[in-house]
Amino acid sequence: MSDSDGLASEPAGLEGLPPMYSIAKGEVVSVQTYGAFVRLPGYKKEGLVHVSEMSASRVENASEIVDVGEKVWIKVIGREIRGDKVKLSFSMKAVNQGTGQDQDPNNVMAEQDSRRRKQFRDHTGNRITLEAVLNTTCSKCGCKGHFTKDCFSAPGLQYALLPEDDDVAPQQPQQQTSTVAPQQDSDKKKKKKKEKKLKKKRKRERKESESDSSSSSSECKTKRRRRDSDREDKKKKKHKKHKSHKHD
């Protein structure tokens, strides 16, 4: 180990573990797709070398880099306690695998990786729901749904919450059906009235056309009679004149 701070200064729960940023040579005991587990001599606890900590280049599978039983140099970059379990994180890219020399003596790469892991940590279990706010009661106005500091009511006035859409929705279809029925009846009546008016207009137009045609025919007949009578009168006059000339 490069660091020898002593086990007495270790925090509770981390006794018997390799100190942070120490370098050691261990044996690969298990290989998974996401990384390899390495056991250090003198320690019972195994640590994980994630695929992102195996090489500076991208690694798809841990079996591409190491095999079970292989000896590798590692650097301790993380120690966490989660409940009753202790998690150890190792890095291979921070150590020269040929000489065991520290490639990151100032631990800059280790700190950057730890920050990156914290940013992408899942916090879904610590979500805040709106029920914690909606179930509160204001001590100023006595209404539910807001805090006293956010209360907008004036002294002596109280405000009630509006009903939800689910409570109002069932009543709307009944009102609509009741209003639609009389509208349909009124529309039908209007249509019938319009049809009656149109029929009356058509009858009137027919009668007028018939009367016009009859009057025109009668006028024509009278004109013809007048012409005929005029012709006859002219003939009679001519005949009389002709007779008078003969007698002379």
TrEMBL record:
It comes from the Eukaryota. One of its GO terms (biological process) is RNA stabilization. Its main location: nucleus. Residues 21-93 form the S1 motif domain. Residues 168-248 are annotated as: Disordered. One of its GO terms (molecular function) is RNA binding. Pfam families: S1 (PF00575). Residues 189-205, 234-248 have a biased composition (Basic residues). The keyword Zinc applies. It is found in: Nucleus, Nucleolus. Gene3D superfamilies: Nucleic acid-binding proteins. InterPro entries: NA-bd_OB-fold, S1_domain, Znf_CCHC. Residues 138-151 form the CCHC-type domain. SUPFAM superfamilies: Nucleic acid-binding proteins. Keywords: Acetylation, Metal-binding, Nucleus, Phosphoprotein, Ribonucleoprotein, Zinc, Zinc-finger. Interacts with PNN. Associates with the 60S ribosomal subunit. This is Zinc finger CCHC domain-containing protein 17.
